[in-house]
Amino acid sequence: MRTDDILAGLERGDTTALARAISLVENQRDGFERVLSQVHGRLGRGATQRIGITGPPGAGKSTLTEGLIREYRGRGLKVAVIAVDPTSPFTGGALLGDRIRMESVSLDPGVFIRSMATRGAQGGLATTTEEVADVLEAFGFDRILIETVGVGQTELDVAATAETTVLVLVPESGDGIQTLKAGVMEIAELYVINKSDRPGADKLKQELEVMLGIRRGNAFAHVPAHHGKALEGRKVGKSNRPTVQPSSDWEAPVLLTVASKGEGVAELAAALDRHHEYLGGSGKLVERRRRRLAARTRAVVNRAIRQWVWDETGAEELVARRLDEVARGDRSPYDVAAEILDQVRNGGGKGSGT
After folding, report:
1. Over the stretch 222-267, which tens digit does the pLDDT of each residue have?
2. CA–CA separation, 114 vs 127, rounded Å?
3. C-alpha to C-alpha distances, 144 to 38, 229, 240, nearest whole angstrom
4. Which DSSP helix (H) or strand (E) runs through 19?
């Protein structure tokens, strides 16, 4: 399908054209930047929410995502899912595990599920995930759920891509404190303890609330005092009396769900709506989108420069010529990189250098 046909299909709301457009963007084929430029004008105009769902493997992210899809579809909202899967070592494509697990909702015409391979990206998302989300938003989806690959504590890209990030944890996953490491803890606005019908859920919930309280300066606000009532929204002052802790900042809730039974999913959807309203009312939604666009612009420039260096200069040939010297230890990779940069600065093109 030609780029013109894809763009015309997107205008008509053709899901086949949408799938082709996503493939074009994901694989960065000829015309992908034209597609992205065309859809850019439609971004930020509607009420689309980009929701990131991350957490360790086995936490039930896909089941929770499926539950959210059902909840949103019950409201009549159109839902798109970007399920980032590990890369196949044979084809380089996604293993499609998430799409298989969400089979019960995949035939709904108001649901669009796309599996993407990480292709070596280390942050839990494929490098083009955000651009694919742009295409989906422009197509008119009300909710875009971005489920990360589930590689553990390196899934930080989702915080820059989504407006709200949900960290899904599970009881009996080993040392509770291990799950509270700052790298993952600091990216989320909502925390979900899934499979909460298992032993240890309440203990993990309390640990999370204490950790979040430490970050906010009221560590034991949710822990019951000796009279059995938590000091909600309070902290203890020098007089040892609870004092009100005024704050206009978002306080991340810790929610309990059993996604396989649908328990707690409606509460999670309501909390997601509250966070989106908070972002809109505080001006942080506009701020986040501006920051995301600035980062995207830099990334596009970096990608274009990188491609230009390798395609339009003599960098590849120079590396090939210097490889024997690098292998012998006469030169280092850093020496060769400096030589390439000097050549670029001096306007050298293909065939330049000695």
Report:
1. 555 545 555 444 444 444 443 333 345 888 999 999 999 999 999 9
2. 15
3. 20, 39, 46
4. helix 15-26
pLDDT reading at 81 higher than 60: yes
Task: Count H helices and E strands in the chain, helices first.
Answer: 14, 9
Phi, psi of 298 (to 5 degrees): -60, -40
53: three-class secondary structure by DSSP: strand
With bands split at pLDDT 50, 70 and 90, how would you rate the model's confidence at 352? Answer: low
Nearest to 25 by CA among 131, 148, 112: 131
Q: In this structure, what token pair is assigned to residue 30? A: 């000829």
Determine contact, residues 173/197, Cβ cutoff 8 Å: no
User: For residue range 175-208, what is the model confidence (pLDDT) as tens digits?
Assistant: 455 555 555 667 789 999 999 999 989 988 988 8
Dihedral of the alpha carbons of 156, 31, 298, 308, in degrees to the nearest 10:
110
**What single-letter DSSP state applies at residue 166?**
E
- Cα 80 from Cα 15, distance rounded (Å): 12
Q: Is the pTM of this model over 0.90?
A: no
Which helix or strand (DSSP H or E) is residue 4 part of?
helix 3-12
Q: How far apart are alpha carbons 231 and 215 in whole angstroms?
A: 16
Q: Cα(287)–Cα(289) distance, rounded to whole angstroms?
A: 5
Task: Flag the least confident range among 44-48, 66-70, 325-329.
Answer: 44-48
Q: What span, in angstroms and rounded, lies between the C-alpha atoms of 304 and 35? A: 16
Distance of CA 329 to the CA centre of its chain: 41
- Specify the residue for token string 């979900």: 192
